[in-house]
Amino acid sequence: MTPTINSDRLWQSIMALAEIGAIPGNGSCRMALTPEDTAARSLFLGWCRDLGLAHQQDAIGNQYLRRAGTDPSAKAVAFGSHLDTVPTGGRFDGIIGVLAGLEVLRALAEAGVRTKAPLELVNWMNEEGSRFRPAMMGSRVAAGAFSLADALAITDDNGVSVAQALAESGQAGPLPPAPRDWSAWLELHIEQGPVMEATGADIGIVVGTMHARYFQLSVIGEPSHVGPTEMNRRHDSLAAAAEVILAVEKIALAAEPNGRASATWIENIPNARGNVSHLTHLHCDVRHNDAPAAVAMEGELRAALAAIEKRRGVRIDVDPYATFGPIAFDPRLGALLRQKAEARQLATRDMIAAAGHDSVLMAPLFPSAMLFVPSVGGITHNPKEYSTPEQVARGAQVLLDAVLELAG
Amino acid sequence: MTPTINSDRLWQSIMALAEIGAIPGNGSCRMALTPEDTAARSLFLGWCRDLGLAHQQDAIGNQYLRRAGTDPSAKAVAFGSHLDTVPTGGRFDGIIGVLAGLEVLRALAEAGVRTKAPLELVNWMNEEGSRFRPAMMGSRVAAGAFSLADALAITDDNGVSVAQALAESGQAGPLPPAPRDWSAWLELHIEQGPVMEATGADIGIVVGTMHARYFQLSVIGEPSHVGPTEMNRRHDSLAAAAEVILAVEKIALAAEPNGRASATWIENIPNARGNVSHLTHLHCDVRHNDAPAAVAMEGELRAALAAIEKRRGVRIDVDPYATFGPIAFDPRLGALLRQKAEARQLATRDMIAAAGHDSVLMAPLFPSAMLFVPSVGGITHNPKEYSTPEQVARGAQVLLDAVLELAG
Predict the structure, then answer these.
(1) Contacts with A223 from chain B: Cβ below 8 Å
(2) Nearest to B285 among A87, A129, A226 (CB)
(3) For B389, which DSSP code?
(4) Which residues of A touch B241 (CB under 8 A)?
(5) What CATH number has the domain spanning A211-324?
(6) What pTM does this model have?
(7) CA of A237 to nearest chain B CA: how many angstroms apart?
(8) End-to-end CA distance of chain A, in Å?
C-alpha cells in the first residue's frame, strides 16, 4: 500500500487544534507558553502518543517526536514547524507544518511502511515572538545561535520571564537544547502572501529568505503639560515616534517590491492625557531580498532618526537586537521537492520567504528546505488566514513523497 | 495680631507631602486613588485634625475641611485645589492650592482670628485624569456636570473601576456629591507656563480659561504580517495613527499663540512585533482662548481624519467625550484679588488658563476666581516643576487677604 495523505484527517486535526484559543472570525490566539499554547501542545502530544512516537522535550520547550527506522545507524529525516500563533492568528501559520508532519507519520503507519532512517517531527517553541522576543526562539536556542540562559531571562510585557513561563506551563524538558542528529530538515508552511494564488502555483519551492534587521528604539523627550506648554518648548516623544513610524513606511515604499519595513510595537510614557509624552519605545524592522539593500535601508532609517533628533531636540537610542537571513536553502533538497511536486502534476514556483521561519536557524546546520502552499488572498496573521483543504493536502503529499525518498 | 502667612511652614508642608510618591528628579507620582494619593490624603487630614477642622468626604472622594464662623447663617468662603499628580508630576501643581489653603487656616488660628463666615478648604479627587478620564472628576461630579454612577463605572488602563479604587483606598465618603453652601470659590495654582516669569508678574489674575475639546479616537485597520504583506495591501492602524499625531501637531502650530493641540495617549493592538497593527486608540485634544477657534480646530482635525481614512483604507471613530470652558471667572473676585496683590506691592497680570482646573466646574455655580504664581522656566507636569518659597508665599498671602475680606 502506497502511503497517501488523508486530506480529511489532516483537515480535521487542523480544525480541532484551532478550537484551542479560538478568537472571533475563525482565528486562534495561542501565544507561546500561554495556557492555550500549552493545551495545544498536550493535544498534539496525545495524537503522537496514539502513533507510538517517542517524545523528547528540551529545556527551551521544543518538542521532538521520533519514529524509529530500520537502520539504527542512519541519521533522522526531520520536519515540522510551530503551533504557537500571534495574538490575531489564523489556523494555518506554523500549524500546518506540524500537523502535515503528523499526517505523514499517520499515513506511513496506516500503510505499514517503515523507513530505513528514523523520522523526527518537531514543534518549535515561540516561533512568533509576539510574547517574548526575539522570534524563532526555540529553534534559535537549539541551533546555538542564542544562549539558553539569555533566552530564559527574557521577559514579556508583563515582566514574566521565559524561565517562569516554561516552569508554570510544565514545558521545560530535561534535554539540553542542541542540534540533533538529522540528515535533512524540511518545513511546510503557508506562503503568507498573494503571489502563488496570483500565478496559479500549487507548491512554492522556497529557495531562500530575505535579510531582516530588527530594531528596538527609545525616543527620549521631555515631560510637559498639554495646556500651557507652547509648541516650541515641547520635546514630545510621541510626536517624534510618529515621525519615525512614517519614516519607516517611506523607506518601505521606496524598497518595494523586494524590500519591506514595518513599525509594529509601541509603548508610550507616561501615556497620560494631560501630559506631553517624554519617552516612547518603538519596534521596527527592515528587510530585503538582497542583504546589502537591507543594510542600506538601515542606513536610511538611521539618517531619518538623526534628522528627527536634531529637528525636535529629542534623543533616539537604537538597539539593533536581532537579524535573520539571508539564507539560501539547500538546492538539492529544493530540486527534490520540485521533482516530487511535478510528479504529482502540481505547478511549482520558486519563492523567497519574506518572513522569518525556524528553517532559517536549521539551514546552516543541516541540508534544509521549505515548501509553501498558497494563502487565499495573501491574508495572514489575521483570523481570515486560509488555505483550502486541497491546498494543504497537496503540500503534505509532497512532504511525504520527499520524506520517503530521503529516508529510504 | 494680623494674620500672616508663615512661608517656612507652608514650604515645609509642601516638601513633606512631596516625599509621598517621590520620583527621581524631585518629582512626585500620586495618581488618583493609588496608595500614594491615599497616603497624601491621610497626611493632609492629620494636619487638618490638628487645626480642629471638621472633616466631610463625599462618595466620589472629595475632602471638605471646615472652620466654623461666628455667624451660623453665613455661607462659607471656600478654597483649595487637588493633591493628586500626573505620573511625572512635580511638587506644586494642585498641591500648593490645598496647602496654601491650609496655611491660611493655620495663620488665622495662630492669630486667633475667627471670621464671620465659615471657611471651607477642599481637596478635589482626580483632577489630573491621568488614571481615570475625564480629568477634574471630583469637582465635575460635585458640580453635577457628570453623574456619580457614570464616574464610578469608569475604569483605568488595568480595568480597575473608580468604584473599586474608592472602596479599596477607603476614600468613598458618606456625603452625596452636590454643590455646597458657598458664597465664593478661590483657587491658587501655579501658572504652568513662562509668561509671568518673562513679564515679571508676581500674581496672575486668571480672568478665564481656554475652551478645550477632548477626543478619544479609534483607528481601525486590518491585521497582516510584517514580512510578506506588500505595502499596498496594508491597512496599518499604527501608521495611520502616526499621521493623526502629526496632523494634531500641525493644527497646534497653526493655532499658536492662543491655541494648543496635543496627542498624548496611545494603545496599539496587537502590538506584536510580527504584525501590522489593526487597531490603535489615541487620545487628543484641541484648545483655544477663543471658543469658536477651538471648534474650528476640531473641524480641521476631522478633515484630517477623513483624508487619512480615505488614503489608507482605515476607519477612524471619534468619541468627543468631554470639553471644558470657556469660563469667564467672576470679575469682582478678580478685582478683589488684584487689589489685595497691589496692596502688598505685588505686580499682577491678567491671565487666561490653558489647562483645565477644578475652578472651571465651580465657576457656573459660585462667584469663582483663580490666582497664579509663577512657574520657574514654565516647566510643569515634570519633576523639574518649581516655584520659589517666596513666590508660593506671596500667592498664599493674597489668598489669605482675599479670604479675610470675603469672610468678614
Answers:
(1) 88, 381-383
(2) A226
(3) H
(4) 242
(5) 3.30.70.360
(6) 0.85
(7) 10
(8) 16
